[in-house]
Amino acid sequence: MSEDASARATRARELRHEALGLEPERLLTMYRQMVLARAIDRRMWVLNRQGKAPFVISGQGHEAAQVGAAAALRPGVDWLCPYYRDLAFCLALGLTPLDFMLSVFARRDDPSSGGRQMPSHFSLPKAHIATTSSTVATQVIHAVGIAYAARARGLDEVAVTCVGEGSTSKGDWHEGLNFAGVHRLPFICIVQDNDYAISVPHRLQMGVDSVAARAAGYGMAGVTVDGGDLLAVYEATREAVEKGRSGRGPTLIVAKVARFTSHSSDDDQRRYRPPEELEAMLRRDPVERFRTYLQQASLLSDQDDERIQQECTSEVDRAVQIAEAAEPPDASDIYRHVFSESGPG
Amino acid sequence: MAVKTLIEGVREALDEEMARDERVWVLGEDVGKKGGVFLATEGLYARYGEARVLDTPLAESAIVGVAVGSALNGLVPVAEIQFADFIHPAFDQIVSEAARVRYRSNGTWACPLVIRAPFGGGVHGGLYHSQSVEAFYAHVPGLKVVIPSTPEDAKGLLKSAVRDPDPVMFFEHKKTYRLIKGEIPEGEYLTPIGPAVVRREGSKLTCVAWGLMTHYCLEAAESVAGEGISAEVIDLRTLQPLDRETILRSVEKTARAMVVYEDNLTGGFGAEIAAVIAGEGFEHLDAPVTRVAGPDVPAMPFNRAQEEAFMPSPAKIADAMRKLATY
Asked: Which of chain A's residues have a Cβ under 8 Å away from the Cβ of B77?
């Protein structure tokens, strides 16, 4: 590339975030959220290998899609019905590393469940992150109901749900999107398509390249974006949010992402993915990609990057230290919260 | 007090609760303009509008799932499943979601909702309009299971269910809708979820039932009364939570107990009641606990003779009472 062409390309990149109205400071916040999510995620695998975390499930490779989408929402106002890979999404909406580590260690003060649920079953009422189960796609319908209630109550909240592409085969996914389409609800479904549902590949999951093709069947807009491109996901989500908020109906967004880790700590993806595929995938690192963007736009110096990485690492260190030492719940607490403790009324 | 049908009790409860609290809304198949296939929601659409009396797509999991979501965001949904036979696609939303929202969030989320469904046979409904499904849900901690048998209770219990902070399964026996008439008190009242009621005092045996079977037991008790068999009939009203005290107090008095239910015998909720009586009232018993129930066949046939063969009837119950009384 000639020097001129290189300068033009850089300028074009700068224009992308400028055209989206994103200030450098916001870009750095998003970058930091991705780095933090990655640091937490990596640490939980270490804790798993150390025998301190019986089960972990990961979002590595999904960070750009999640942080980009979260940036288009108003934390604590708009809603997220998440799925188990949404660590970066939840961090961006207000979950702290300590909150998360308390769930990894199943501690009493884990805000998602008090140690009852496996980690990554996110829930944070004040951030409007709804509680979820492990049965996939059930939360899609909850987001639809949340959106219906928001409209009924005259609130301008938008409800977002995330699923993997495997969940789109479930009846609940269909029933939810159909309902949202009927009522043109302020609802957004983000499918984080990483090509695998545990070991089952995309080609055995659906007969289309992108599940966004189904959107027309629900009377809603459907878009496919490069989920490794934070700004592209931000742009698509922002448009969907504006559409929902202004009464123009729901949107289905498919973000093509990479699943860096095995499905969970109980899986080994080398058993069903060829080495060359894994190698190629690892070159699609969304965190590195955004770092390169920021560096080429002269928004992030090596020094700044080093500082951000270090800050995130120490934040995770601190969270692990506090969470590990935190009180477990009492075993006798299993009898609590089956029903309301204040009784009817 | 005016004499009304059971379904009028249901309708009045919904109407009063919707008038009282604008967060309350009704959703289900055909609940809008049509007013429901049994007319339980008749008139509500005209009074409260489409947004609060919503005809949903024909998708039971969505009906319950949307109800759950709307409860998370501040509404109080009353979902109607058209027939209990069609509730199975929503099992996951009810059991994995609604029942566990509070528990799995350590009490930081709540899921106040009511799911109404007509159940039960004896109406020529065949395999798929006759089922009793209460045992599936009474098995699930986190759900309350309510089955009224009188117009007064239908209204009072449904109003309590709407105000309950947790998910309530509200099963209405479809044969009782118009068959069972009774006085409904004027003005506001609530029937608490939990306590059973003794519908007929007796000394010789205790008969525990719910829904239509309460009335069949009362008929049977009347028919054996002249033979010197004094049967006490308990209308459970609420299966979950279960009023063990009322059952055990009665068994202590009568020393003989039977449970009557329309569901298949094996694994039906009557088995749990028999276990409670055997486990906690053993020293009072003079005879084994008897179950009168539907047979262990997949479901109730359409053919009249076969339907009658399936259904517990006042005559079958009376026979069982005679056997139990003379054990």
From this structure: 145
The packing angle between helices A24-49 and A63-70, to 10°, is 140
Q: Is A310 on the interface with B (CB under 8 A)?
A: no
Q: Is the pLDDT of residue A1 over 60?
A: no
Which is the catalytic residue, given B88, B124, B129, B139? B129
Give, in order, the Cα–Cα distances in Å from A231 to each of A70, A77, A82, A89, A221. 11, 22, 21, 15, 19
**Tell me, what CATH number does A182's domain have?**
3.40.50.970
Residue A338, domain member (yes or no): no
Query: ∠ CA A84-A89-A91 to the nearest 5 degrees?
Result: 105
A179 and B62 in contact by Cβ < 8 A? yes
The reply to whether residue B106 touches residue A114, judged by beta carbons under 8 angstroms, is yes
Looking at the complex, report in whole angstroms how far the Cα of residue B117 sits from the nearest Cα belonging to chain A: 20
ipTM for the assembly: 0.97
Asked if the structure places residue A98 within a domain, the reply is yes
Bridge partners, A190 (sequence order): A162, A253
The total number of structural domains that make up chain A? 1
CA separation for the pair B177, B165 (Å, rounded): 27
The amino acid at residue A252 is L
Q: Where are the beta strands (DSSP E) in chain A?
A: 79-81, 159-164, 187-193, 196-197, 200-201, 221-226, 251-256
CA distance, residue A151 to nearest chain B CA (Å): 9
> For position B59, what pLDDT does the model report?
98
B284 is annotated as an active-site residue:
no
Nearest CA in chain A to B59: A175
Q: What is the CA radius of gyration of chain B?
A: 19
CATH number for region B2-184:
3.40.50.970
A84 located within any domain: yes
Closest partner residue to B109 (CB to CB) among A123, A140, A175 is A123
pLDDT of residue B277: 98
Asked whether residue A344 carries a pLDDT value surpassing 70, the answer given is: no
Task: Kindly report the three-state secondary structure assignment for every residue of B23-48.
Answer: CEEEEECCCCCCCCCCCCCCCHHHHH
Residues 78-97 of A with CB under 8 A from B: 79, 81
Q: Of A81, A153, A344, which has the smallest distance from its Cβ to B164's Cβ?
A: A344
For A157, nearest residue in chain B (alpha carbons): B73
Domain that holds residue A119: 3-327
CB under 8 Å to B244, separation ≥6 — which residues?
B276, B280
**Contact between A146 and B104 using a beta-carbon 8 Å cutoff:** no
Residue B91 backbone dihedrals phi, psi, to 5 degrees: -55, -45
Residues of chain B with CATH 3.40.50.920: 197-325
With cut-offs at 50, 70 and 90, classify the pLDDT of residue A342. Answer: confident
The CA distance from A127 to the nearest CA of chain B, in Å, is 12
Domain with CATH 3.40.50.970 in chain B: 2-184
The verdict on A144 touching B (C-beta cutoff 8 Å) is: yes
Range B197-325 classified under CATH 3.40.50.920: yes
Of A142, A144, A140, nearest to A168 by C-alpha is: A140
Q: Is A109 exposed, middle or buried (0-12, 13-18, 19+ CB in 10 A)?
A: middle
In this structure, the number of other CB atoms found within 10 A of the CB of residue B103 comes to 21
| Helix, strand, coil in percent for chain A, rounding step 5 | 50, 10, 35
- Asked if residue A250 belongs to a domain, the reply is yes
pLDDT tens per residue, range B101-138: 999 999 999 999 999 999 999 999 999 999 999 999 99
